[in-house]
Fold this sequence. Notes:
Layout: E1 2-5, E2 13-14, E3 21-26, H1 30-39, H2 44-51, E4 58-61, E5 66-75, E6 83-92, E7 96-101, H3 126-159, H4 166-197, H5 204-270, H6 284-305
Parallel strand pairs: 3-7
Antiparallel strand pairs: 1-2, 1-3, 4-5, 5-6, 6-7
Amino acid sequence: MVKMYKTFGGYHEISEPEKGCWINIIKPNEKEINYISDKFDVPADVITDILDVDEVSRVEFEDEWTLIILRIPVEVQNNGVPFITIPLGVFMKDEFTLTICSQDNEILPFDKPSPFKNHYKNITDKMNFVLRLFHRSATWYLKYLKSIKQMSNAIEYDLEKSIKNKELIELLNLEKSLVYFTTSLKANIIVSNKLINSKKITTEINEDWFEEAMIENKQALEMAQIYSDIQSGMMDAFASVISNNMNEVMKQLTFISIILMIPTLIASIFGMNIPNYMEKSNFALPAVLVVSLLLSYIGVVLIRKRRWV
Length: 309
């Protein structure tokens, strides 16, 4: 899927590329990849790297073009891990700026209005656009981290009475998301530092955006690390909780089995084919029931008194 805009922010959509345009590409098929490579003279290995879900964040400076890859968070449906990170590539030449991503995302949503549409006049240059992407990416990291915290609290409530592994597996999947976030945020911060050290950020406005983006990314990284530490501790603690809950269930079942053994024993004795001097008594059955219930009650009292359950 390919969309072209006259300027950054996606305010004016165009059908053919022109100087200074922005081209946003999401989930390109083989035909679109060939079109991009031929039409815009983008190296094939660059496109392959960007579409590789395991590609790390990095920046490359060449004589004719600049490539910046940052990892952005995305929400995953129908998958064990609720959030992952994927590469978003920004390929810049004098004539155009190209953004490529293997999945639809909230950083540059394809079917929604551009997040920069109302502020497109404030985007002064290509580097300003890139810094806004870093800033927006960090914002979504923070939003998804809040979602992870809420999901973790809900799982924690269920775990207090759980004897199954379902909740622990859900916590493990949240831990995986936090590992993805931490690793990607560290790499994004390194790329940001390389940009400022390369002297590509020259204007005062871009320096301000760089500082804001760094603050947001560092805050997201710190939150992800804190949540990850808390999550690890929770998993260890609740593994013990599940074990204790299982022990409580086994104690209750053992208690019930012991109490039921008392009337079963009495009924077995009186059910033997030997004389017991009560065969012809009208009170035999009530007497056996009363004795069974009385002994069962005494057994319950003794067990409760000794606090065995």
